[in-house]
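Researcher: I'd like a structural prediction for the single chain below. Treat it as a standalone chain; there are no partners to consider.
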Amino acid sequence: MVPHEVDAATAISLDGQSAETVNGASIDITVVDGSVMVNSAPITTADVAASKGIIHIIDAVLLPPAE
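Model: Treating it as a single chain, here is the predicted structure.
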């Protein structure tokens, strides 16, 4: 989870950048063959409206970094 709303069009424009999550971890955003990837997980469903923001469903589980 990132602390601000990012729709799919904005996510595409963030290719090659990273974003800080609410727990302080960093995620990498890339575009591969037209698909947005979060770390190495492709977004399978984008722009799901939720009461507290926008959800993008990915094809993996992201875990916080080991301490």
